[in-house]
Every structure is written in structure tokens, then in C-alpha cells.
Design a protein that fits this description.
This protein is mainly α. The protein is built from 8 helices and no strands. The protein has helices at 3-10, 14-26, 28-31, 44-56, 61-70, 72-76, 80-113, 121-161. α7 runs antiparallel to α8. The protein is elongated. It starts with a helix and ends in an 8-residue tail after the last helix. 2% of the residues are buried.
Amino acid sequence: MEAKDLAARFGVSRQTIHAVVRELRDAPSFQGRGTSVLGLRVTDQEARDFEAAVGRLGLSKTEALRRLMRSAVPLLAPDDEVAARLKQLGAEINRVGGNLNQLSRACNEARLRGEPLPYTAQSHAEVRAAIAVVFEAVAQVGQLARGQRRQLDVVVAGVLQDEGGGEPA
């Protein structure tokens, strides 16, 4: 029943109905022990998409959100293995950057002194190898991200399909 219908039935304004609902909702006895009401603004399209997704699973929006929140801690926890690999890739890229800076500095200093550039065929091969290391690192970061996304998809599907949060059936 809508607020306007209740207001007409009891001879009060809609604002009075809303005030009573707020008062009751905020009352400790209504909330239960240790509960909170959370608010979330989404676009109309996001709301429709979410309702359709949880509807296909036979869940209410509230139950779907409750299951997702219960599983949030492990979902949002950092992955130590991924963090270690990213740190290693960052170190590799820093080494490459340092080497390229040294080469650039040597070439610039030689140019300023009017000397021949110390950029040889071997230097060129080393630059190409350094660039290959950077591209490989980028590819590995992409692979890590895709793997994390697949794992997250499996966990979210499991959480929504099974209250225990296990693998989807």
C-alpha cells in the first residue's frame, strides 16, 4: 500500500505517513540488535539490470545484497601472490627504465661535447630487448587482471547461487 493510500485512509498527510515510517524504521526494536540500514543510489538502468540478474536466480534484492556483503571481506582482500608478482614486474620495469636513462644520458652528453654517439648496434639490440621486457610485463599484468576477474566472477556467482558462497553448481 502506498503512502498516499494510507494517508487518505487515516486522514493524515503523506508526510505524516513518511515520518511515522522513518520513526519506526529507526526505532531500536524494529531494527533488531546490531543491524543497520544502508542506502545506495543507482541509475534506473543499473537498478533494472540488478533486479533482472537476481530475479533469474530467484533472489530478492535484499537477499542478493546481503549475500554479496557477507562475502565482501574475502573478495576485497588483497591477493598476496598477485601483489608479489606486480612488485616483481615493477622492479623489472624500473631496471629497464634506469638502463634506458643511462643510455639517453650518455648519448646527450656525447652530442653536447660534439663526440660520436655511443649508440651501437649492440645498444640498439639492448634497447629492443628492454622494450620487449616492458611489453612482456604489460602482457603479464593483463593476464593477472583477467585471472583475477575470472576468479571474482566465479566467487560472485557462487555467493549469489549458494548462501555458503561455494562454487556455482
